[in-house]
Amino acid sequence: MAHDRAQAQTQTERRRLGDWLPRSERHLAKYRLDLAEKARERGAKASRNVVVDELSKLISGDPVLRMDLTRAIGEARDSGYVLGYESIEELMVIVDYLMTYAPPFSETSLIHCPLNAVLDWPMCMPSGYALFRDPALNAQLKRVLNCWCGFLTGPHSREHLTTDAPNGWFSREADQHIGMSQFICDPDKPYWGFASWNHFFTRQFRDGVRPVAGPHDSKVIVSACEAAPYNLQHDVKLHDRFWIKSQPYSLQEMFTARHRDVAERFVGGSVYQAFLSAFNYHRWHAPVSGMISRAYLVEGSYYSNADSEGEDPGGLNDSQGYISAVAARAVIVIACDDAALGQVGCVFVGMADVSSCVIDALPGQHVNKGDELGFFQYGGSTCCLVFEPRVIQRCLPEPRFDDQTPVKVNAQIATAS
């Protein structure tokens, strides 16, 4: 690790959306070094988790995967980034440690996505782009992330659900970011009544905290998530070059070829995209009233970047449009009660560590505007609302979206024609 410590980098800071990772590369470098040290200590005493062992065997047994990951690590280190590891084996030790890791609160270097932090630079190096698009690697990464999700859904993940500063999620410092009084909880109970980290992270608002805008006005379309506007694009195409720097939306890729008939409905229509913050609410709500016509999960990538973005600003956080076509996601389509609105597509995209999408509303179920549709476990990434042509008359959060202040869930985002 001396090589890492010697490379005190003056790298360009990356634009990081939603506070999932700190903006300071210095904080991230220190985090990775500290994590690596703890991982080595644990690795000397504990057996490796089966899913991590399978990941290690997959990479070591595939010459292309082994070559690409070895090169990506080397490219990141040669560029001056502090990773905390020098080899695939050292990386596997850290990944194994993260299987029983519950993120603590931090005012300066909050890491909601620890594996993303560990892979942060190799995944956007030249050799990393193809690596993290590999289907076999993504299938095993899914098993790794599901294993971590299992830990976060259990009682042993509640280590930091306390009022103790600086790591406690109910400390005064944390509450200034979260505002726990808005959520259903009981400070008089152990862990404030939360059964697990995921139970806390998918916490629910108290009744009346997020009223539905225009509950009886079908022309008022509301935000499906507590999310900051990212993009608004009209005249979207069935197929487009989602991998280029402008990242246009490609409908068939978003909805998948199996559901081409759904994608075709939205050709020439509009896409409104917004991204979720680490501190905010992570459940999804219906932007309109109607019948659920489709609801399905899409397998996809977890750490794939748009290589057109490059290193500056670089990374997954600036690949929001791209990941709508390639990342693991949930798709829900609503046939609106108001026939003039046609159908509305809702695409909830899991990013990096945030890969577990849970759908509550199933086909054949009627939902009123503001009803819950599902949620992201351990966080959230980005969501797209897709409209048919000539449906949107006006979008309230107009581009350009320089402000990362989230629009409240159930607040009006658009008016229909």
From TrEMBL:
Family annotation (InterPro entries): PS_Dcarbxylase (IPR003817), PsiD-like (IPR022237)
Top-level taxonomic group: Bacteria
Molecular-function annotations in GO: phosphatidylserine decarboxylase activity
Keyword Iron-sulfur: no
Entry EC number(s): 4.1.1.65
Pfam families associated with the record: PS_Dcarbxylase, PSDC
Entry keyword set: Decarboxylase, Lyase, Pyruvate, Zymogen
Domain L-tryptophan decarboxylase PsiD-like: 51-177
The name this protein goes by in its record: Phosphatidylserine decarboxylase proenzyme 2
Organism: Paraburkholderia metrosideri
Gene designation: PSD2_1
